[in-house]
User: What shape does this take?
Amino acid sequence: MKKFRLHVLLLVLMLPTLLQGQQKPIIGLSSTSGEGSSTAVPLTYVESIIRAGGVPMVLPITHDHQLLHRMLDNIDALILTGGEDVDPLKWYGEEPLPALGGIAPERDSFDVALARLAVQRGIPLLGICRGHQVINVAFGGTLYQDIPSQVKGSEVKHRQSAPGDYGTHTIRIEQNSLLHKQIGMQSIAVNSFHHQAVKDVAPGFKVTATAVDGVVEAMEKMGSDQVYSVQFHPEVFTAQDIDTFLGIFEYLVKKAEEHAMDKYDIGITE
Ligand code: MN
Assistant: This one.
């Protein structure tokens, strides 16, 4: 009888949690190390995750394998954020062109490891700008080091001077792609702050959006519904309460919830 009462008490105590559903999923964010003295992530990513119903968690750069794995143990999805150019020599075997921008070798290694381990462990993954390019090289693709000097006939300004939450060039989105599902548009104006771009698409990935000059603006992993990337910056709009691209983050949060449930299911281990 006492045991029964205890069970009823526990159930009543847990009811608000049960009715609320599960807890919000944790979304890891790759970071930059600034001048070697800081770990930094633009607030726009943080705010976008919160708006989409997730809990942002910043991942500081490390090359310790155990630390890396423990970080991944504790997140339900991952966003590879924007930033520096990728080192062409190390990651796709090309000599650096004069127009290559600043690179961050420590960050490259961390981001590539994060991308590969996330996919290996079934952690949902979204790449944004540099993150989109990192995913491509992590799985065997290459990049244009500099669009103006390498993409012949490109007459699109991919480094806009307009405000960040203003779409300046159009992209065409493939039907039946994750991006199409997430934002419900076939063509839309995006913001653009890059001079590098995907060249050879990594094996196993497909292009899901392009600019009019053919530059790859979105990709996803074939045979997966949780690995995708964009060349533009949806987080700048989302953080400004503009809902056009909110679906990109809401989708990730939904996949993160599913991943968290799988993870804690009895009998299922990673
Ligand atoms: Mn662009």
